[in-house]
Amino acid sequence: MTELLTPLHLVFYVFAAIAVCSALAVITVRNPVHSVLSLVITFFAMSGIWMLLRAEFLSLILLLVYVGAVMTLFLFVVMMLN
């Protein structure tokens, strides 16, 4: 019989919980800057899940393109609008 909860499963559940909680924070937080930062946390958690799936290229592209470029632009636009 296989073990029900391996360390890999535990790491996946931690990343999934972080992703779900921060995604909920994106739509519930009233401050737009905090909402964008919650979206960055969501992207980091999803990147961790991609790493667990052994899709390192997609994980790093997610971090470089979305967090590095797009989210930085979103953050600057939100800060300028205030």
Describe this structure in words.
The model has no long low-confidence stretch (mean pLDDT 90). By secondary structure, this protein is mainly alpha-helical. The protein starts with 6 loop residues before the first helix and ends with a helix. Helix content is 84%, strand content 0%. The chain is flat, with a radius of gyration of 15 Å. The protein contains three helices and no strands. The longest helix has 26 residues, at 56-81. α1 (7-28) packs antiparallel against α2 (32-52) and α2 packs antiparallel against α3.
Descriptors:
82 residues; mainly alpha; 84% helix; flat
Topology diagram in text:
Elements: H1 7-28, H2 32-52, H3 56-81
Helix pairs in contact: 1-2, 2-3
**Count of individual beta strands:** 0
Helix run count: 3
H/E element string? HHH
Q: Give a quick account of the main beta sheet: strands, pairing sense, barrel closure.
A: none
What fraction of the residues are assigned to beta strands by DSSP? Answer: under 5%
Roughly how many Å is the radius of gyration? Answer: 15 Å
Uncertain segments of ≥5 residues (pLDDT<50)? Answer: none
